[in-house]
Specification:
The protein is of the alpha+beta class. The chain contains two helices and ten strands. It has helices at residues 8-49, 185-191; strands spanning 56-57, 69-78, 83-87, 91-95, 100-108, 114-123, 131-135, 142-144, 149-158, 173-182. A five-stranded mixed sheet has the order 1-7-9-5-3. Strands 4-2-10-6-8 form a five-stranded mixed sheet, with helices on one face. It folds into two domains: 8-49; 56-199, Ctag/Cox11 (Ctag/Cox11 (Pfam 04442), Sandwich).
Length: 208
C-alpha cells in the first residue's frame, strides 16, 4: 500500500522540526559539558581568590605577628575513597600572622594503591582570603600504597589584614576543612605502577 506523498508545507514543517530537535540537542550537550567544565574552573577561581571560603597559597609568611589570637579548628572528610583520614589535633590557638603547623594522617584501607586529591575551604567564608598555606598535601594528588599510613604536615598562617577587615575582625574562630576525593582516573591509572610517594618526600614530620 502506497502512503500519500507529503505536501510541500508538510515537508517544510518536518524539516523545521528536525532542525529544532538538533539545535535543542546541541544546546543541551553544551550545557552539560559547560556544567562539568565549570566545576574545576570555579574551584580554581575560589582557591586563587579566597572566594567562597577557599584558602590561598602563599610564598612567604609575614615578618611579624599580632598580639590577637585565633582558634583554628580542623575538620576531615572522605568521599568515595577506601581511606581513613584524621587530624592529629582538633584545634590550635595561633596569633594572627604567626606560622602554624598541623598534622594530618591518611591510611589506605584497600589492597591496591589509591590516588586521591584533597579539596579544602574555611569557615567563615570571609576568612578564605586571609587564610594562607605555605605547604599542604592538597596542592597535588596523593598516592598511598595498600595498607600504608602517611602523615602530612600543613604549614599555614592568617594574614594580619584579617584583624582590620570589618567582616572578619570580630570572628575569633576559623575552621579549616579538607575532603579527599578520588583523583582523575587517568592519573590514577598512570601512577598505579609507580613507586608510592611518601608525605613530602620523607618520613613522618619530615620535609619542613
Amino acid at each position: 500500500m502506497l502512503l500519500p506523498a507529503r505536501s510541500e508545507p508538510e515537508n517544510r514543517t518536518a524539516g523545521r522540526n528536525r532542525r529544532l530537535a538538533v539545535i535543542c540537542a546541541l544546546v543541551f550537550a553544551g550545557m552539560v559539558g559547560g556544567a562539568y567544565a565549570s566545576v574545576p574552573l570555579y574551584r580554581a577561581f575560589c582557591q586563587a581568590t579566597g572566594y567562597d571560603g577557599a584558602t590561598t597559597r602563599a610564598k612567604a609568611a609575614p615578618l611579624a605577628a599580632l598580639d590577637k589570637t585565633l582558634l583554628i579548628r580542623f575538620d576531615t572528610n572522605i568521599h568515595g575513597l577506601p581511606w581513613t583520614f584524621t587530624s592529629e589535633q582538633t584545634s590550635q590557638t595561633v596569633r594572627i600572622g604567626e606560622t602554624g603547623l598541623a598534622y594530618f594522617k591518611v591510611t589506605n584501607n584497600a589492597r591496591v594503591p589509591v590516588t586521591g586529591h584533597a579539596v579544602y575551604n574555611v569557615v567563615p567564608e570571609q576568612a578564605g582570603g586571609y587564610f594562607r598555606k605555605l605547604e599542604c598535601f592538597c596542592f597535588s594528588d596523593q598516592t598511598i600504597g595498600p595498607g600504608q599510613t602517611i602523615e602530612f604536615p600543613v604549614v599555614y598562617f592568617v594574614d594580619p589584614k584579617y584583624a582590620t577587615d570589618q567582616d572578619t575582625r570580630n570572628k575569633h574562630d576559623v575552621t579549616l576543612s579538607y575532603t579527599f576525593y578520588p583523583a582523575v582516573p587517568s592519573k590514577q591509572a598512570s601512577t598505579a605502577g609507580q613507586k608510592t610517594p611518601s608525605a613530602l618526600g620523607g618520613t613522618p614530620k619530615a620535609g619542613l
